[in-house]
């Protein structure tokens, strides 16, 4: 049984703050500053360039990849870390399309994160030759999979509403139609049990700065199923994805398996923070985490609906269809969220009308859930959000 009081103590949450935005940026792990300081002074400071060999920096993308792989149900040796999520989406998508050369359609849904769609649009524009991106409503994805589809590109949990796709069902439908399945786990990894191997995913990608708590700008990861590891060819082929990068061969030879999905020099300082963050997960059972998140989510929904009749639930009530966040709709959602943040309850806003709250049991319990609901109710009851200062949009919402 996971001890969530113990995990709570492993994060720094500022005094007076209830943090319900870990689905956007996870809080600072208590151990991260010391780990990063060691990296900077004892490793970089003393070893200089020798740190790549003396301290194993070059191997970290694979070793940390395997630690993330455990959390997403991947086979060992098939997850690697590095670069940004957009780059990993591009790599996975380009590789998948190349594996289905007789097909021209990428299928996604209108609830997907815009960046994924931008990447897909850019790729089809680059390829030309009849390639298209087709988007349908989330509930229509399965019915739209046919023999024209090369790959489906799906984010498992909708970033706005928390709606969760059925990975096993959609992957099976894709395979039955001869297509490949690419899954974006940005709002899944570290939030709920993911089983990419058992559920047949061909590729999966995700970021580490949300539920995995690696810090702002933390590196992304990519998973390639073992059956594709030696066939997948990333269009974005970097020097660290070469079979012998330090031969400096002018001709690209893909590295073995997942190594070919490496691109640029790994972000060593950021990986140090991630390493400290992943230590927290060593004592966490993902099924325990899921059960607790659903329990807290139900509690928050019940409390807010009872006290805030003007808010409309946007998140599915059904547990199987829900990620690890709760979202409500209101025409003045932005101003309400700013008023909430001013009182120490930190969630975030997503256009056009979403108040979004991350339910993260590693550092959130019943007391925080209840206090957040009470604060939200007080703001609405008092009309405290109706202030010009709370209506002024900031650069990051």
From TrEMBL:
Cofactor dependency: pyridoxal 5'-phosphate
Modified-residue entries (N6-(pyridoxal phosphate)lysine), positions: 210
Reaction(s) the record says it catalyses: L-kynurenine + H2O = anthranilate + L-alanine + H(+); 3-hydroxy-L-kynurenine + H2O = 3-hydroxyanthranilate + L-alanine + H(+)
GO terms for biological process, alphabetical: anthranilate metabolic process; L-kynurenine catabolic process; L-tryptophan catabolic process to kynurenine; NAD+ biosynthetic process; quinolinate biosynthetic process
Entry EC no(s): 3.7.1.3
GO terms of molecular function: kynureninase activity; pyridoxal phosphate binding
Top-level EC class: hydrolase
Keywords on record: Hydrolase, Pyridine nucleotide biosynthesis, Pyridoxal phosphate
InterPro entries for the chain: Kynureninase, PyrdxlP-dep_Trfase, PyrdxlP-dep_Trfase_major, PyrdxlP-dep_Trfase_small
Binding site for pyridoxal 5'-phosphate: 85-86, 113-116, 155, 184, 187, 209, 239, 265
Keyword Ion transport belongs to the record: no
Pathway annotation from the record: Amino-acid degradation; L-kynurenine degradation; L-alanine and anthranilate from L-kynurenine: step 1/1; Cofactor biosynthesis; NAD(+) biosynthesis; quinolinate from L-kynurenine: step 2/3
GO CC, one annotated term: cytoplasm
Domain of life of the organism encoding this protein: Bacteria
Alphabetical list of NCBIfam families matching this protein: kynureninase
Family: Belongs to the kynureninase family.
Subunit structure as annotated in this protein's UniProt entry: Homodimer.
Known role: Catalyzes the cleavage of L-kynurenine (L-Kyn) and L-3-hydroxykynurenine (L-3OHKyn) into anthranilic acid (AA) and 3-hydroxyanthranilic acid (3-OHAA), respectively.
UniProt protein name: Kynureninase
Source organism of the structure: Citreimonas salinaria
Encoding gene, per UniProt annotation: kynU
């Amino acid at each position: 049984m996971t001890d969530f009081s113990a995990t709570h103590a492993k994060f720094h949450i500022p005094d007076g703050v209830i943090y319900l935005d870990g689905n956007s940026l996870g809080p600072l792990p208590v151990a991260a500053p010391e780990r990063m300081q060691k990296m900077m002074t004892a490793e970089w400071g003393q070893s200089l360039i020798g740190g790549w060999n003396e301290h194993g920096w070059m191997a970290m993308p694979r070793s940390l990849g395997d630690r993330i792989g455990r959390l997403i149900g991947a086979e060992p040796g098939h997850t690697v870390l590095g670069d940004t999520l957009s780059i990993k989406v591009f790599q996975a998508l380009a590789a998948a399309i190349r594996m289905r050369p007789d097909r021209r359609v990428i299928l996604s849904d209108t609830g997907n994160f815009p960046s994924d769609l931008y990447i897909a649009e850019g790729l089809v524009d680059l390829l030309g030759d009849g390639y298209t991106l087709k988007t349908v409503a989330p509930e229509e994805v399965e019915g739209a999979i046919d023999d024209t589809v090369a790959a489906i590109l799906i984010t498992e949990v909708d970033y706005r509403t928390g709606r969760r796709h059925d990975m096993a069902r959609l992957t099976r439908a894709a395979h039955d139609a001869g297509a490949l399945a690419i899954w974006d786990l940005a709002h899944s990894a570290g939030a709920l049990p993911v089983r990419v191997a058992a559920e047949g995913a061909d590729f999966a990608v995700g970021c580490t700065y949300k539920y995995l708590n690696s810090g702002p700008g933390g590196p992304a990861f990519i998973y390639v199923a073992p059956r594709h590891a030696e066939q997948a060819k990333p269009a974005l082929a970097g020097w660290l994805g070469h079979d012998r990068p330090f031969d400096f061969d002018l001709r690209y030879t893909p590295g073995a398996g997942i190594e070919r999905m490496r691109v640029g020099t790994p972000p060593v300082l950021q990986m140090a923070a991630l390493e400290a963050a992943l230590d927290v997960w060593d004592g966490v059972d993902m099924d325990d985490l899921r059960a607790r998140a659903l329990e807290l989510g139900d509690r928050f929904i019940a409390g807010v609906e009872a006290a805030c009749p003007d808010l409309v639930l946007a998140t599915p009530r059904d547990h199987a269809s829900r990620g690890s966040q709760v979202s409500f709709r209101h025409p003045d959602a932005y101003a309400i969220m700013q008023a909430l943040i001013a009182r120490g309850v930190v969630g975030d806003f997503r256009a056009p009308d979403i108040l979004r709250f991350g339910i993260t049991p590693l550092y959130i319990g019943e007391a925080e859930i209840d206090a957040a609901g009470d604060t939200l109710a007080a703001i609405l009851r008092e009309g405290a959000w109706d202030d010009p200062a709370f209506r002024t949009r900031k650069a990051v919402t």
